[in-house]
Amino acid sequence: MRTNSSLGHYVNLAWIAWFQFLIHYRRTLLGPLWLLIGPALFIAIIGPLFAHVSGVAVSVFLPFLAIGLVCWNFIHGTIVGGTTVFVRNRAQILQGELSLHDLAAIDLMSVVLQSLHQALIVVIIFLIFEVEIGLYALESLIGLALLVINGMWVTIVFGTVGARYRDLAELVQAIMRIAFLATPIIWMPGNSPKGGVMGVYLVLNPFYHFVEIVRAPLLGNPIEPVSWAVVLATTLIGLLLARLTLSRYGRYVALWI
Length: 257
Known about the structure:
Blueprint (H helix, E strand, L loop, with lengths): L6 H18 L9 H21 L3 H25 L2 H4 L1 H6 L4 H29 L10 H26 L2 H16 L13 H8 L2 H13 L6 H25 L3 H4 L1
Helix pairs in contact: 1-6, 2-3, 2-6, 3-6, 3-7, 3-8, 3-10, 6-7, 7-10, 7-11, 10-11
């Protein structure tokens, strides 16, 4: 299925995503502020509690929690939302106005917009605790770019499989609930993830690596080489898988939905 890769085309898709984003909150009193209220309350209530349980200063734990939570919400949004993206856009697919690639891009842009709103929480936390940000923090921009790129192939692959097998959405939601607890979001892995059971546990958790390539630079910590290796390998394999999925099964999505 051919897609238009011109800049103007993606600008149009961004406008569609922005319009859908506004429509979603048009009848609410606080609008997009609801995107901030949930994570903000979670951080304000759970943060100090888990900081005390972990024996970590609140000024250290809350920035760690805030960045991790925003990254996780993006990852969760792309994976869980991806399982139903084509089912939710059944009318557009049957009309043939937008390609599967375009619909996946619009859905991903919507998740990006939500994450940009929630990023304000991180800014506020950093200001409250006067977290210093050096030039090394710019490396997190690379991590953010890789998150978005991976979000694209995840949406395409999971959307295609989800169109064929509707149970995928329920299965993925169950797995993501467990993955949230298994990933260092509300708990800190310690000073060194190398060696021991914890080290193996973290290395085998891909979500940890995707969060770390964004969080570590912002907190002034180096990114472990294994995290770069896992993320880059996942990105390359995922993009190839998305290409193969569209070319092989894209034509059947309209029949499955």
